[in-house]
Amino acid sequence: MRIDIDSYREIIDTLTRNKSRSFLTGFGVFWGVFMLVALMGGGQGMKEMLYNNFEGFAQNTVLMGASETTKPYKGFKKGRSWYMDYKDVERLKQQVPELDAVAPVLMGRGSTAYYGDQKTTPRIQGTLPEMTKIETPKMYFGRYINDMDVREQRKVCVIGKKIYKELFKEGGDPCGKKIRVDSTYYEVVGVDYRSGGISLGGRAEERITMPLTLMQAAYNRGNSVDMIAAVGRPGVLMSKITDRMRETVARAHYIDPTDEQGVGMFNTELMFQMISNVFKGVNILIWLVGLGTLLAGAIGVSNIMMVTVKERTTEIGIRRAIGATPKMILSQIISESIVLTLVAGMSGILFAVMILQMLEMANTEDGIIQTHFQVGFWTAIFCAVVVSTLGVLAGLAPAARAMSIKPVDAMRDE
Predict the structure, then answer these.
(1) DSSP assignment of 329-367, as one string?
(2) Which terminus in the chain has less CB density within 10 A, N or C?
(3) Contact 195, 183 (CB under 8 A)
């Protein structure tokens, strides 16, 4: 299809001859593209915001906790309270080889942390370095607790983002400085900048993490643990080994292995799978709504182009009479349709990108974008291709009508 400067001028002249009609026709395409791009970016942002709540958390993890038994077992009545201990960690490692890491967790509440004249109320957590395979920290300063900290019961801790901002308002690296938690001083060795995470003793940003052995001694917790987090080896489906994990712990504490409430287990694999399925449905809905709106806009363009062809019957007939071929007429009408849809479509893309960029700026903290709403470059290119294709399709019917006009019929119409 050959288009020269004169053809461009003629297309622009035709489209601007009736500005209101061209604007309203193009608005349908503009709104369709805007809806498609905005919904895609918004859906992506919502998915990321939801996943941020589980930031750094392994998707093949099982959390185990102790609750009152609901079934009698070996002479014990139901309703019995019990507690897990560190030996359960070793039992799981030995009897369930499919597990990659097993980390016990101790949790504390009602504490107050101080640094200088600043104070805050954190959640306290004691755990082992293996926890990094289950909850991946985002270290802004320093490091996470290590094996040496655990063996020597070092009085060190890793603080969350919120704790860091409330205690160290002047900013800077707090590593090496000491904070007081209740009546004990701890040296800060790292700052975990995660915002979300599944609640293991509180959100990651509100948490102070210390070695498990230190917390057991400092808070007189003996050998007990409040929760056990376990992550499977690559390729292992946790849903296939949860019953064996429950049985391993239950039998050691004289609990019915089928008591699902007595030995509570939360499988994150199932949760992440459910979230993934929900967003697959959301993405399908987004494409249906966006493409449906685009198609409605393209039909509007086609209808208006039909009206335009009808109005230009005499002009087209004269062109045919002085030698214009059907191919020239086809090229002219389709070019007008493509220009109208492309201008409207690209405007919709630009407007959607601006809105999504504003949403990203509103979700920026400390210079870090917390949630990405912006669509990718190739997604925008794909939308542009879709708009161009719809422009061609929208111009086919009006072009076919224009090609069928005969000079004699045009003169008679005049």
Answers:
(1) HHHHHHHHHHHHHHHHHHHHHHHHHHHHHHHHHHTEETT
(2) C
(3) no
